[in-house]
Amino acid sequence: MKVLYPYLSLLLVVTLAFSSCRKYECNPYIFPLRTKKARVVNSWNYDLVLRNGLDVTTGNVTANTGEATIDYSLSKIGFDNQDRFATWIYFNDLDTLKQYDGSWEFQDKKEKVILKFDEPFPPSGQFQEWNLIRLQERNLWWTEDTEENNHLEYRLTPTAGKSGIL
To answer: Do 41 and 163 form a contact (C-beta atoms < 8 A)?
Structure first.
């Protein structure tokens, strides 16, 4: 029986190490090295934006709908330690980059991020709710469902050499 204990202990450690790798940081330790908040605090580029499964990163898909299209490849978002965020959105139709600021917080056991905007457009107090699907040092992925029954998925990576709000 004494011979069996080291193998059982090793099996338990390996099981715990690999079973804890889900949407959050995956590392060889049982406890993560960085908090979830520390992983969000950064400046992020949009690498891929999917709308109902179609790539709309450059915003050229919604012709003749009357809505302004967003070029996410030219847009950015940044989060700081004081629970503030700033986002720069490039509107194709207007050929304009606009900045919106606000506050952010985790909800539902850090499974969601809520953004609350300060500026008049979107109206002050308006918020977005993100369902996190991946939150790692090099990946921030979330989904969002709109009132128009559109399912959006965003995949971001950090901007080179920056941290916090741009």
So the answer is: yes
**128 — alpha (psi -120 to 50), left (phi > 0) or beta?**
beta
One-letter amino acid for residue 153 of the chain: E
pLDDT at 66: 55
Distance CA 164, CA 84 (A): 10
Contact 54, 140 (CB under 8 A): no
pLDDT tens-place string over residues 26-75 = 544 444 578 899 999 999 999 999 999 999 999 865 545 556 689 999 99
Nearest to 43 by CA among 166, 128, 144, 142: 166
Q: Check whether the bond before 122 is cis (ω within 30° of 0).
A: yes
Map out the domains of the chain as residue ranges. Answer: 34-158
- Tell me, yes or no, if the pTM score tops 0.85: no
* Domain 34-158, second-level architecture: Beta Barrel (2.40)
